[in-house]
Specification:
mainly beta, repeat, SLRP, Leu-rich_rpt_typical-subtyp
């Protein structure tokens, strides 16, 4: 019973503007007579805890809340102007039971002037609450993780032009309108992982000129239409892991001149076109799976002069073609898996003529036989490379540079 009662607590953290400006501690009054207040770590903040499950009634006070936390309170609806007397930068409503009709159109009236962070994960939302959040002109972060949203309609966030981070992790997205993100020029981080997206529209992200991070992992993408990433001139981090992509071409990544991190791990790739990554001149990290790729050539990884980490997954062939890594002059970390016991090992001929093996670290697993006396490992050790990984049974192995 005690634990159940604690779970229903509603926590509100307050921060007094006046105390902040004076630079000394000050007692901040509770927002309601139904709450108990205490100082937080000796700072000019107070934590107020409600034992009631209902939405608290906020009375007008000359107080600015640092954070209002009304999470996991079994709330089913936010009525009109419930926060009219609240001045806060962050509102946490996560874990409530709003469902399809939990927000009145004017639910966030009064929060327009200050609210920057709105947290609505795991609230059983079936749609984006566009009409309710449209008045939040200062909103910078919106978290909609763990809901059951299946569609993002056109202009869903049209009036939230200051959004910098949008999270839709682990929903049921099947479709994103071609103009769903129109107007979000300030967006920096977009999280769309673990949904059910089978495809993206050309220009879906057009206008997001400040986007730096895009996570599309764990969807059902079978192909990337050329032009999908058009206009993402500042994108640095792209995660496409665990989709259904079978082919990679340079048209797919066209325009991503600032991209540094690409994760394609877990895709059933069968074809990597020559120069597929040549249009990403600043790439530093690349992860993919070569297990089902039928043809590899030196052109598959051409112009990857800045790549420092390369993960090629399971290699389902006895050897990799010579000069495959001929342009990887700065490579420091290479991961090669051999779960199918087909791959016989690496050769120096894979690398540039004057490659610096002394800075190379090779991870391989599992290693058969389980010792450092394998011919290819001895050769790499002799050249200064460090080879490590694990054997069957996950017993670690470490093969250092040979001395003497």
């Amino acid at each position: 019973m005690r634990m159940l009662l604690l779970r229903t607590f509603l926590v509100v953290v307050l921060l007094s503007d006046s105390a902040r400006s004076r630079g000394r501690k000050s007692r901040v009054p509770c927002a309601s007579r139904d709450c108990q207040c205490r100082k937080v770590k000796g700072k000019a903040r107070m934590t107020c805890v409600w034992v009631n499950r209902r939405l608290p009634v906020f009375h007008p006070r000359d107080v600015t809340y640092d954070r209002v936390n009304i999470a996991n309170a079994n709330l089913t609806r936010i009525p009109k102007a419930a926060f009219r007397n609240v001045s806060t930068t962050q509102l946490d409503l996560s874990g409530n039971l709003f469902g399809a009709s939990g927000f009145n159109r004017g639910a966030f009236v009064g929060l327009e002037a200050r609210l920057e962070v709105l947290l609505l994960p795991h609230c059983r939302l079936a749609t984006v609450p566009t009409s309710s959040i449209s008045r939040l002109r200062r909103l910078a972060t919106l978290n909609l993780d763990g809901n059951v949203i299946s569609v993002i309609p056109r202009n869903a966030f049209k009036r939230n032009r200051k959004l910098r981070e949008l999270r839709l992790f682990q929903n049921q997205l099947r479709n994103i309108d071609a103009k769903a993100f129109r107007g979000l020029a300030r967006m920096e981080r977009l999280q769309l992982a673990q949904n059910r997206l089978p495809a993206l529209w050309k220009g879906n992200f057009r206008g997001m000129r400040n986007l730096t991070t895009l996570d599309l992992s764990g969807n059902l993408l079978t192909r990337i239409v050329p032009g999908t990433f058009s206009g993402l001139n500042r994108l640095k981090w792209l995660d496409l892991a665990s989709n259904l992509l079978t082919s990679l071409t340079k048209r797919m990544f066209k325009g991503l001149k600032q991209l540094q991190y690409v994760n394609l791990d877990g895709n059933p790739l069968t074809h990597i076109g020559d120069g597929a990554f040549a249009v990403i001149p600043r790439l530093k990290y690349l992860s993919l799976d070569l297990a089902n790729v039928s043809r590899l050539s030196p052109g598959s990884f051409v112009r990857l002069a800045r790549v420092k980490t390369l993960i090629v997954g399971d290699v389902n062939r006895p050897a990799l073609p010579a000069r495959l890594f001929r342009d990887l002059r700065r490579l420091k970390n290479l991961s090669v898996l051999n779960h199918r016991s087909v791959f016989k090992g690496l050769t120096p001929e894979l690398f540039p003529a004057k490659f610096g093996f002394g800075r190379l670290s090779v991870w391989t697993a599992p290693l058969r036989p389980c010792n450092c006396d394998v011919a290819w490992i001895r050769e790499f050790n002799r050249r200064g490379a460090y080879v490590h990984g694990y054997c069957d049974g996950k017993r670690p192995i470490s093969c250092q540079k040979l001395t003497g």
